[in-house]
Each structure stands twice: as structure tokens, then as C-alpha cells.
Specification:
The chain is mainly alpha-helical. It is built from 7 helices and 3 strands, in the order αααβααββαα. It comes from Paenibacillus nasutitermitis.
Length: 158
């Protein structure tokens, strides 16, 4: 299950878009804010440029998100010891608590998914999901193919 969780964070997918359990958190923070906090929890302190890259957002957008999170006390930004021009982003204790709460909600939701599938279905689901993520991450948009394929029927047990 942690592979799926890691996929969401590494690929920039926004898992909160389909998780109704996060509604309470989304009253305090946007989905981008929550994703930013989770990425910092998962990867540790990062520069603004690194964070923007992982989030798949322009630096100007990441700066706006960081200012909002800093104003709310969830992150701290400080100049790097190696280069004063570089800002290092760190979770505060409050930010860490919110990120851990978000992580628990996300893992519980993904656990419900895992419980609904047989081990074979889960393996197939993960394989297809990783394949889809790779297509979007590595190759960009899918272009229509001239050759049409016949869909293969998959039997799923209830």
C-alpha cells in the first residue's frame, strides 16, 4: 500500500480529489496545501525549487502556496546555510501533525481499496496504475493510434 501512497506523491497525482474523508482538512487547507505538507513529511526539508519540481508547479505558484502555509504556521522558510539566495522549506510541529493526520486518512482510504480487492486483483490494479502513471509521467499525452485494439474482458470477483 505504501507503493501506491508513494506513487501519488512522486507523480504529482492529487489523491485528495477523490477522498471524501479529507473534507474536514480541506476546510482549513487546499488540496495543494495538503499535498505540499505530505511531500515535505515524506521527503523531508526541501528547497523551494525542489518542492516546485516535485509538485509539478511553477516556482511562482509554489511561492504562493508556501507563503500561505507559512502564514498559517504549517511551514517555516529560511535561507540555506550554503546559499543565502536559496530558501529551505521545513515543516513546523503543527504542519507535521496536520501532514501525519492527512497521511493516516489517505492510508486508511487506500486500505479500504486494498480490502475490496483480492490479492490478484490488487496486484493487477497496481501494475496497471504504475503503467498509467509512467505513461503520463514519461511520455506526455497519449496520441491516438491508427490500429484499433479489441478490449480484453477481465473477470472481477465480488
Amino acid at each position: 500500500m505504501h507503493q501506491l501512497y508513494e506513487l501519488f506523491l512522486k507523480s504529482g497525482l492529487r489523491p485528495f480529489a477523490f477522498m471524501s474523508d479529507t473534507l474536514q482538512l480541506e476546510q482549513k487547507l487546499t488540496r495543494s496545501d495538503l499535498s505540499t505538507l505530505l511531500i515535505l513529511l515524506f521527503k523531508g526539508d526541501m528547497t523551494m525549487s525542489e518542492l516546485a519540481s516535485v509538485m509539478g508547479a511553477p516556482l511562482s505558484t509554489m511561492t504562493s502556496i508556501a507563503k500561505r502555509l507559512e502564514h498559517k504556521g504549517y511551514i517555516a522558510r529560511a535561507a540555506s546555510a550554503q546559499d543565502q539566495r536559496v530558501k529551505l522549506v521545513t515543516l513546523t510541529q503543527i504542519g507535521r501533525n496536520v501532514a501525519k493526520e492527512s497521511e493516516q486518512i489517505m492510508l486508511a482510504t487506500l486500505g479500504r481499496l486494498e480490502a475490496a480487492f483480492t490479492p490478484e486483483e490488487m496486484e493487477q490494479f497496481m501494475t496497471l496504475l504504475f503503467k498509467a502513471a509512467k505513461v503520463f509521467h514519461d511520455k506526455g499525452p497519449i496520441m491516438p493510434q491508427e490500429k484499433k485494439t479489441v478490449p480484453k474482458k477481465i473477470i472481477i470477483e465480488e
